[in-house]
Structure formats: structure tokens, C-alpha cells
Design goal:
Strand 4 and strand 5 form a beta hairpin. The strands form 2 sheets. Strands 2, 4, 5, 6, 9, 10 and 11 form a 7-stranded mixed β-sheet that branches. Strands 1-3-8-7 form a 4-stranded antiparallel β-sheet, with no helix packed on it. 0% of the residues lie in helices and 52% in strands. The protein has no helices and 11 strands. It is an all-beta fold. It is globular, with a radius of gyration of 13 Å. The model has no long low-confidence stretch (mean pLDDT 97).
Length: 121
């Protein structure tokens, strides 16, 4: 069975940085596109970033472009989200997701349990 485990969340001040990690197992990691999503309190889950199976293609939602960087290490079965210049509105539970094939903003059948990111002002 596919398992995705996020880590690296925490409490940071506005303007600070965090790097989230997602360790994957139960899949051929190099065949899967990976994504990050987030859900703030009282709001709908939203797409944040995604990366192709080989790491050559990335996609970001407009609100994080220039601040967040998604990357992956296929030898470690791990995808990362480096978050710089954090804002209070980035506060959310961040979820890692996996899908076989090409990058999309949707259609991710596998999900982690999430990691909390809280940005204080």
C-alpha cells in the first residue's frame, strides 16, 4: 500500500522559512508526479505545487510563485517543499500527494496525513 508521510512543519515568524519533506513508500517513486496541497482553517483545500516524476517540470499556484520551491530526490523517495518569505496567510495543514504519470493540479489518489504550518505575525 502507498504511504506518504509529511514532516518539517512547525511555528515560524512571518518572513521566515521552512522546508517540508514527504517520504513515500509502496510505489515506484520515480514513476509518480508529486504534489503539495494545503488547507487553512475554514477554507477549501488548495493546490500549492507539483513536480513531474523526473523533476524537470514544476507548477505552482500564483500565491506562492517566487517564494516556494518544490524539489525531489528519487534516490531517497522524498519530495520537498522549501517555503521562503512566509506569510500568516500561509498558515495551513500541508498535505503531500502522489499520482502516476504527468503533473496535474488534481487527480491525486494517494495522500499523506498532513503537517501543520503556522506563521505568526
Amino acid at each position: 500500500q502507498v504511504h506518504l508521510v509529511e514532516s518539517g512543519g512547525g511555528l515560524v515568524q512571518a518572513g521566515g522559512s521552512l522546508r517540508l519533506s514527504c517520504a513515500a513508500s509502496g510505489l515506484t517513486f520515480s514513476s509518480y508526479a508529486m504534489g503539495w496541497f494545503r488547507q487553512a482553517p475554514g477554507k477549501e483545500r488548495e493546490f500549492v505545487a507539483a513536480i513531474s516524476s523526473g523533476g524537470r517540470i514544476t507548477d505552482y499556484t500564483d500565491s506562492v510563485k517566487g517564494r516556494f520551491t518544490i524539489s525531489r530526490d528519487n534516490a531517497k523517495n522524498t519530495v520537498y517543499l522549501l517555503m521562503n518569505s512566509l506569510k500568516p496567510e500561509d498558515t495551513a495543514i500541508y498535505y503531500c500527494a502522489a499520482r502516476f504519470g504527468v503533473v496535474k493540479k488534481y487527480d491525486y489518489p494517494y495522500w499523506g496525513q498532513g503537517t501543520q504550518v503556522t506563521v505568526s505575525s
